[in-house]
């Protein structure tokens, strides 16, 4: 399975360390089978690291209705929150679709729809367990400010967890996102949010507890602004 470029440092170092050790144990002058026994845990450790940075090939759904929003991440819907104001929607009301990613999930972030990047807002913070409601408010985070092709503002937000302490976001103002395109990740467990304007118009297609896949699961529909 392909591995993401965002984890080259981690899975690259793991490979550099694990491969020579495995060859040493297997080819060395050990007691019968002991080399294979010692090499087994090393191979397992490498597999665990590589599995976290897996980047499976995804077929993005075609012929979606206008305003279709695909999930920006793999995981479980942990909250659907309505707020009176949000910076991602120019201070207007919004609905926040929050996705919790465990260490077992694919951690690649994807674009929910076609959009233009208007900027990012990074904030330092704590590293509470991402499963707690408080973590979404106080943990390290990164807001990606976006615009629909029609000019309306919305956003995505990456939130670190207790283990995840590395937000990867290579986006810059002016970048163009294509629906389903990979654009970043949070390493080792985290939360990703999709923040949509006009909550009264948003047709939410998921419930808390639902499992979703980034770039595949249709999680909301936002009709064009009249």
How do the helices and strands line up, and which of them pair or pack?
Layout: H1 8-27, H2 34-52, E1 68-70, E2 75-83, E3 94-101, E4 108-110, E5 115-123, H3 135-138, E6 141-147, E7 153-160, E8 167-168, E9 176-177, E10 182-186, E11 190-197, E12 203-204, E13 211-212, E14 218-221
Antiparallel strand pairs: 1-14, 2-3, 2-13, 3-11, 4-10, 5-6, 5-9, 6-7, 7-11, 8-10, 12-14
Helix pairs in contact: 1-2
Task: Looking at this protein, list some descriptive labels.
3 helices, 226 residues, eight-stranded antiparallel sheet, Glucose Permease (Domain IIA), alpha+beta
How would you characterize this protein structure?
The protein is an alpha+beta fold and 226 residues long. The protein folds into two domains: 5-52; 68-215, Glucose Permease (Domain IIA) (Distorted Sandwich). Helices cover 19% and strands 32% of the residues. The chain is built from three helices and 14 strands. It has helices at residues 8-27, 34-52, 135-138; strands at 68-70, 75-83, 94-101, 108-110, 115-123, 141-147, 153-160, 167-168, 176-177, 182-186, 190-197, 203-204, 211-212, 218-221. The chain has an eight-stranded antiparallel beta sheet. A three-stranded antiparallel beta sheet has the order 1-14-12, with no helix packed on it. The chain has a three-stranded antiparallel beta sheet with strand order 4-10-8, with no helix packed on it.
